[in-house]
Amino acid sequence: MALHRFSAIRGHRAQVSALSRLILRGTPGHAYLFEGPEGVGKDVVAQSLLARLACTRADPASADPCGACPSCMAFIRGDHPDVTRLEKDGATIKIDQVRNALKRLRYEPVVGAIKGLIVESADLLREEAANAMLKSLEEPSGRTVFILVTSKPQMLLDTIRSRCQVLRFAPLSPDDVAALLIAEGQPEEMARPASALAEGSMTLGRTLCDGARMAFVDHVVAFALRLGIDAPSEAAAFVEGLGGRLAGIRPDESDAKGKDLVRADLPWILEILRSAWRDALMVATGMPAETLPHARVASGLRALAQRVDAGRLVAAIDATQRLEDKLVLNPNPKLAMTAVLVDAAVQLRS
Ligand SMILES: [Zn+2]
């Protein structure tokens, strides 16, 4: 826990301004559900909301906390006595954890203006634990704010959901991911390509900011920029080598292990290919290559943009998006990948 401020949040403008409006009108809710993809910053928004509501010297005209009162100082130290965080214990959030957390909410706030409870992965509240929480959500004590957070809203019980104000979060833009990664200290030459592949998630973005993973990205990008120049047999040789390069560096190691290319690998590889072609497309439409995610291969982007026209880059991107159909017909991921690359190579032939 740290002291977060709405004014410092990147992205989520609609969500932040909706919450800010409620604060400035003096009508914040007592139970929120923040739902949206993993790693986009829902928790930072939750902490910003609680920090402002708990602040005892906040400027009524500002949605930010003061930064100096005892409550703000407790957030800065990371040991706020009035804010409880409920996390999973094993695979679920257990009923005893809920009961203990609710017990802590019964007493008056120690340093802040409110008491707050953040429930991480609220979808892991099984029926019994959820029921224990329902009454509190229904009849809140005056100065308690609940924020339930989930990336799997479809798993949440309707009884919980219906008692919360729901705020839906979207993936971050690649620009926001890049800026946030750089702000966290990631080198720009990793943060930029990672941001193009992170699907709007800081969690995935951080995972990709890794030397071995970036070397793999570079390998695939180099191939993407060359596709259509080499003989079609190049595609088969490239696919043959992918499995060995992926061992130990898959973004989600739980999905696939070992040195064989598996289906779960294909979306990531296709996204890398598309990201390279998208950048070349941007160059073809006049964007300077140095401003794009794959700026470190700017000369390769320019060469591809000169070699083929924009329409054929779009066709190559489309070809990779048809992979799903191929997978249905083709249970072998290597063959499916090769087929897609041969399709794309036809588009990119000089
Ligand atoms: Zn304060």
Q: What level of helicity do the residues show?
A: 40-55%
The number of helical elements comes to 16
Note poorly predicted spans.
Answer: none
CATH superfamily of the largest domain: P-loop containing nucleotide triphosphate hydrolases
Round the Cα radius of gyration to an integer and report it. Answer: 24 Å
* Cofactors and ligands: zinc ion
**Based on CA inertia axes, which overall geometry fits?**
elongated
CATH topology of the largest domain: Rossmann fold
Biggest beta-sheet profile: 5 strands, parallel
Provide the succession of SSEs.
HEHHEHEHEHEHHHHHHHHHH
Structure write-up:
The chain is an alpha/beta fold and 350 residues long. It folds into two domains: 6-168, Rossmann fold, CATH 3.40.50; 210-348, Zinc Finger, Delta Prime, domain 3. The protein is 52% helix and 7% strand. The chain contains 16 helices and five strands. Strands 2-3-4-1-5 form a five-stranded parallel sheet, with helices on both faces. Helix 1 (13-25) packs parallel to helix 2 and helix 11 packs across helix 16 (333-348). It is elongated and about 75 Å long. The protein starts with 12 loop residues before the first helix and ends with a helix. The model has no long low-confidence stretch (mean pLDDT 92). Zinc ion is lined by residues 55-58, 65-66, 69, 71-72. Zinc ion (ZN) binds at residues 55-58, 65-66, 69, 71-72.
